[in-house]
Design goal:
By secondary structure, this protein is mostly helical. The protein has two domains: 195 residues, no CATH class; 209 residues, no CATH class. It has 14 helices and no strands. Helix 3 packs across helix 10. The longest helix has 70 residues. It is globular, with a radius of gyration of 24 Å. The two termini are 35 Å apart.
Length: 460
């Protein structure tokens, strides 16, 4: 089978079927690497990785350029505010965009697809606007931050939250219609426009220019996306039944995604409130930048492996073997990347970001180790999703948050940014152990159930 890792036993040419002598270790390693490389090319990982590099790479480039323009404390303030805003932009639509991707991709009529799209726009806009209103009230009445400039910045991102959430819906609709190239093209276009606007405004007006621009940039993106999908826009009467269907699936997905992103946001918020230092938050932001960039590879691998793992859902033995195989190989690859970063990291930080961030190296090193652990559990998270155990992914995310909170409260006062990075490392280790144990139990039970079902006809 072309989509499967295959290990064949070589036989000699005498026709007796006797296994040939086992080749040397270096030949077996070479054969494994060649087999893995061939499968990566066949399954399309390089193409997917390039697509992710195009879309997420623009975001990384924007962060690098902003880090070079801003001072360390300014970067800390920007990271603090945007971590909160981005988290709310993920969760405030109640997962309606994710649910729309699922249902609009099903084999239904085009009219039904349009109903999901227009209904998703209506209910997603209402939910996101309500979430932004609740956030604005919280900023106004709660003592979230007493510093006047940061308080203003927290208010300035209020329009960004619903606009960023709504702007995802047209892109998701293109993906649901299998218009992947078109979705990637317009994602690159809108992110490229945002890159130019944000970097230019920040270069001339620093943080004030950044936050003024970030509040309106999603609006231009949304107008472009609505224009290119105008043929799909129809008026459908708001349906509570549709809202219930979208949210019943979407809320679980957004909780699973939100808890993962909230782990980093929580570290940033606690670091700033426990140390009262924007400089330390700015240095920690470099660690997050490196960590998120290094996660591109395991993310691409798992998105490519998802259809294959879904295809062997009913063969629990093969599914278990493939999940562990992916975990081991991804961990080894990211371990090599982390080892390489130990040698090139100090030079890369100074050249790409500037010598002012040199103190962030050990923070980046700790977070690279967290990425290695993340790579070990990324396949298990996909396996739980395939097995319809989304609630277990949510439990893993909540465990991450709980362990990270406790570790931050203990480590940050003693070790500053290294303590925050170590807290993320410890929480990732706890979440990975939980995911590995849960997947082992679920797959073992599924295997036992399948064996019982195959034996029952013979017993009768």
């Amino acid at each position: 089978m072309s989509g499967e890792w295959v290990t064949q036993t070589p036989y000699n040419d005498s026709g007796t079927g006797t296994p040939a002598p086992r080749p040397p270790r270096w030949q077996r390693l070479k054969g494994t690497l060649c087999n893995d490389a061939q499968r990566l090319l066949v399954t399309g990982v390089p193409h997917l990785f390039m697509a992710l590099t195009l879309t997420q790479g623009i975001s990384l480039l924007r962060r690098i350029l902003l880090a070079r323009i801003l001072t360390v404390p300014e970067l800390g303030q920007m990271t603090y505010v945007m971590q909160i805003a981005d988290l709310l932009a993920i969760v405030c639509d109640l997962g309606i965009s994710t649910a729309m991707l699922k249902y609009a991709a099903e084999p239904i009529t085009n009219e039904k697809k349009r109903e999901y799209y227009c209904g998703g726009l209506f209910w997603g806009s209402l939910a996101a606007t309500s979430g932004a209103l609740i956030y604005s009230l919280a900023v106004w009445f709660l003592p979230i931050d007493r510093e006047s400039a940061v308080k203003v910045f927290l208010f300035m991102v209020i329009p960004y939250i619903p606009l960023a959430a709504i702007a995802k819906i047209p892109i998701v609709y293109m993906q649901a219609r299998k218009e992947i190239k078109r979705a990637a093209r317009f994602t690159a276009l809108t992110q490229g426009i945002s890159l130019i606007m944000l970097v230019s405004a920040t270069y001339y007006f620093k943080l004030w220019g950044f936050f003024i621009t970030i509040s309106v940039a999603p609006l231009s993106n949304l107008l472009i996306l609505l224009t290119v999908t105008r043929a799909e826009l129809r008026w459908f009467a708001p349906s509570w039944k549709l809202l219930k269907k979208l949210t019943s699936f979407g809320v679980l997905c957004v909780l699973a995604n939100g808890t993962t992103f909230a782990n980093s946001a929580l570290s940033v918020v606690l670091l700033r409130h426990l140390t009262k230092s924007d400089d330390l938050v700015g240095l920690f932001a470099i660690g997050l930048l490196v960590m998120n960039g290094s996660r591109l590879l395991p993310t691409a691998l798992m998105q490519t492996a998802f259809p294959y793992l879904s295809g062997i859902l009913h063969d629990r033995r093969r599914l278990r073997l493939r999940v562990w195989e992916l975990s081991i190989k991804q961990t080894l690859v990211m371990g090599v990347v982390a080892a390489a970063w130990y040698f090139v990291g100090p030079y890369a930080i100074s050249i790409l970001l500037g010598a002012k961030y040199a103190e962030a190296f050990w923070c980046t090193m700790i977070l690279m180790l967290a990425t290695v652990i993340f790579a070990a559990s990324s396949s298990t998270a996909q396996a739980l999703l395939i097995l319809n155990r989304v609630h277990l992914n949510i439990c893993a995310g909540l465990l991450l948050l709980a362990v990270n909170t406790a570790a931050c409260l203990v480590l940050i006062p003693r070790f500053d940014i290294e303590g925050a990075a170590a807290a993320l490392l410890i929480s990732q280790l706890a979440g990975t152990c939980f995911s590995l144990a849960v997947v082992s139990i679920v797959l073992a039970r599924g295997k036992a159930s399948a064996s019982a079902n195959t034996q029952s006809p013979d017993q009768t």
